[in-house]
Structures are given as C-alpha cells and as structure tokens.
What does this fold into?
Amino acid sequence: MAGSGGRVTVNGIVFATPSHMYERLYSFRTGDELFVSNSLPFVMTLAGQQLDPDYPHYFLDFRDFHRAGISVTKKQLPSSWAASCRTA
It folds into this structure.
C-alpha cells in the first residue's frame, strides 16, 4: 500500500497506514468527534489542540515509538486541554 487512507464499511470506518513502519496515523477524540490524519500538526489543528509547552518529553516519546515499532499498537502523546493524541 502506498499512502494512508480510510474507508466506510457497514461495520464502521477502517483506517489504513502506509506499509512503511515509520509512518503512522494520529487521532484525537473530542467529545463525539474523531479526527484522524497522517500529519500530527494537521490533526492537532483540526481538533483545536496543541502540544503542551510544559511537557518536556516529546522527543523521548517519539524515540520510544520508533524503537517499539509495530509491537506496541497504541501510543499516546499528551497535549493541551488534558487530551491525548493516539498514534497507530
């Protein structure tokens, strides 16, 4: 597969990541809305979120995500407003 995508099925929505293990999808759930994108800045802007400027470990989090690869399927990043961004 080249690129990422989504498809509506009778059972819900299915999102697909690219086959490259360093590419991912980011999602935010705010209330009853779900935002999904392969771009962290885009999904955060769309969801009205921003990175928490007081959180010092984003670099370490992304490094750990990179090292874990596909063995860890749910990863979270803290953001403003006490919400969290999930990566897949």
Notes: The beta strands are 5-9, 12-16, 26-30, 33-37, 75-78, 84-87. Residues 26 and 87 are 5 Å apart (CA to CA). The first helix runs from residue 40 to 46.
